[in-house]
């Protein structure tokens, strides 16, 4: 994500957007799968393998993922009028770096409940 977002910092055109979208489609599934498998590992570490709370944990996760998708889109729609494309690229870069830091902090450090 950081590399593909870096392309947008150079210029926003059809080619760079296509590179960004292809890179995003290529790199996002491994990251999402890592988060999901880590969540199931955490659930299995709960008492009784988390069987009683599995549905609630998955629904809670999906609620926060949906909120995390909706809120930035609404803010972007409200404040994007007249925004310079370099600012959009910087916002995407900060988001990509944040995802990278979260991935390292959560999955690589084996965070426990």
TrEMBL record:
Record keywords, A-Z: Membrane, Transmembrane, Transmembrane helix
What parts of the sequence cross the membrane?
A: 6-27, 58-79, 85-107
Q: What is this protein called?
A: Uncharacterized protein
Q: Which species is the source of this protein?
A: Paenibacillus validus
């Amino acid at each position: 994500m950081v590399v593909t977002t870096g392309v947008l910092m150079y210029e926003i055109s059809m080619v760079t957007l296509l590179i960004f979208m292809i890179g995003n489609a290529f790199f996002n599934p491994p990251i999402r799968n890592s988060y999901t498998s880590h969540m199931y590992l955490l659930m299995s570490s709960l008492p009784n393998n988390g069987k009683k709370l599995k549905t609630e944990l998955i629904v809670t996760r999906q609620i926060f993922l949906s909120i995390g998708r909706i809120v930035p889109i609404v803010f972007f729609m409200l404040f994007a009028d007249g925004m310079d494309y370099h600012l959009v690229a910087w916002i995407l870069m900060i988001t990509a770096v944040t995802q990278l830091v979260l991935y390292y902090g959560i999955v690589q450090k084996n965070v426990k409940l």
